[in-house]
Design goal:
The protein is α+β, with helices and mostly antiparallel strands. It is built from 10 helices and 4 strands; from the N terminus they run E-H-E-H-E-E-H-H-H-H-H-H-H-H. Helix 1 runs parallel beside helix 3, helix 4 runs antiparallel to helix 5 and helix 5 crosses helix 8.
């Protein structure tokens, strides 16, 4: 059994989508970001960085944090959705790291300054939205002639899709990125991925905005 400590964010959805795709049994532990559950001692004992998601393997007692590390752990544990050796393994890992180091941070900052920051600073908003668009255009180029980023469906698709699908929330225009649009739709049509983005139930828009405003004060 996997115990999943999560919240309705792109990083959280990566893991619920992965667990659904693997058809693993898991127990949801909702972390309420609005009341700073992630800063409480019980959670910090799992992840000293105070961020979701975190998993605990109840059979082995292993605790893993950082969404990319969790995806790799689950892929290796089940021997699915990532090659175990060879060049294809590193191809999947490089696109996972592309999301971890680029897509997520840039779109996350676009969210902060476009949605939550009390002062609207156009130059800063443009900076992150433009960089988000550039990174999504890199995905678009990789997807030309491919159904998935590394030809076969993998953790790289899960990680990147959970962020890319939120482009409107970041205020990023994806006009002309037709390969990306088809891939977003293809991923959304996967029943397990669709189930994954429903976990946990997302609060209404006002609560999301309030939560984001509280987070930037930390």
């Amino acid at each position: 059994m996997i115990e999943l400590h999560t919240a309705p964010t792109p990083n959280g959805w990566k893991i619920s989508c992965m667990l659904e795709e693997l058809a693993l049994e898991y127990d949801i532990k909702l972390v309420n970001l609005m009341v700073n559950d992630q800063k409480k001692p019980d959670f910090l004992a799992l992840n000293p960085n105070g961020r979701i998601p975190v998993i605990r393997n109840t059979e082995t007692g292993e605790v893993i944090f950082e969404s990319g590390a969790i995806l790799i752990y689950l892929a290796e544990m089940t021997q699915k959705l990532m090659p175990l050796s060879g060049h294809k393994r590193y191809e999947v890992l490089q696109w996972l790291m592309f999301q971890m180091g680029g897509v997520g941070p840039m779109m996350g900052q676009a969210n902060v300054f476009n949605r939550y920051f009390p002062e609207k600073i156009p130059a800063v908003i443009d900076r992150y939205q433009n960089e988000g668009r550039r990174l999504l255009s890199v995905l678009d180029g990789q997807l030309k002639g491919r159904e998935y980023l590394c030809d076969e469906f993998s953790i790289a698709d899960i990680a990147n899709w959970c962020w890319a699908r939120t482009y409107e929330w970041s205020g990023i225009n994806i006009d002309g990125l037709d390969n990306l649009k088809r891939w977003i739709d293809r991923m959304h049509a996967r029943p397990a991925c669709y189930r994954g983005i429903q976990v946990p139930a997302r609060p209404d828009a006002d609560q999301v905005i309030k939560s984001g405003q509280e987070l930037i004060k930390q």
